[in-house]
């Protein structure tokens, strides 16, 4: 019964969040300077031409009526028609989702495989001269460099010099898996730099917090080796904040992919939304942002469940969290 109530509460809060996001994004796209008619017809279009285009797409109706029609369609699974390509938005997003999904999975995998060991290493070597300062410096540098700066630098270097990897191209995984991975390595590496840095810093802080626990002191007193202590006493007890962070990062990277896809010319959801913003393709922007919000909500629910498995004291069934 408690689990059922928890699921009901999460469903209601998720629906309220998505409704709020829908209002915000619908309002925001219509407040952007330069409307759809001005973007499509250009600066020399007559008032009659603009009025005709607005009538054709229903943009002459009151905003609340446009929102109501769009929300009703979305509730029925219809994201509308792209005002530029005249193709169903849902099908367009679905065709591009594998690219963004693969890019995000590669970046999250790199964050976990590099960030967690780096964080553990800097924590256990936090004493003066142990190398912890170098790890903190690298983490701070990775957090500070924007993705578009790093991505532009990588594109320039690999375009200027023949280093074995191409940029600006993409091959479907189903067509040639090896070529596909070769085109995704650099975008995934750029996207993962920030995540690796944040994961390393969070892991370091979590491990430092566990290192002062009495059971770690007792393990040291029993003469257990440092890496045995790390594997059996530290990693699981420090995992909760790291898992929470990785889940949040996964949702964040979906948004960060927007910039990286655009820089590396990948046909993913992010580059699709960037093009839609420039063309004032309202239906695509609204659907893309709503999809990103839904993914973020789902990831948070999964994090809550996983944290409960790792630490039953914080679990849903324990009733410690709402």
UniProtKB/TrEMBL annotation:
Listed Gene3D superfamilies: MetI-like
CDD domains linked to this entry: TM_PBP2
Membrane-related topology note: Multi-pass membrane protein
Source taxon at top rank: Bacteria
One Pfam short name: BPD_transp_1
Subcellular locations according to the entry: Cell membrane
Family, per entry: Belongs to the binding-protein-dependent transport system permease family.
Name recorded for this polypeptide: Peptide/nickel transport system permease protein
Species name: Nonomuraea angiospora
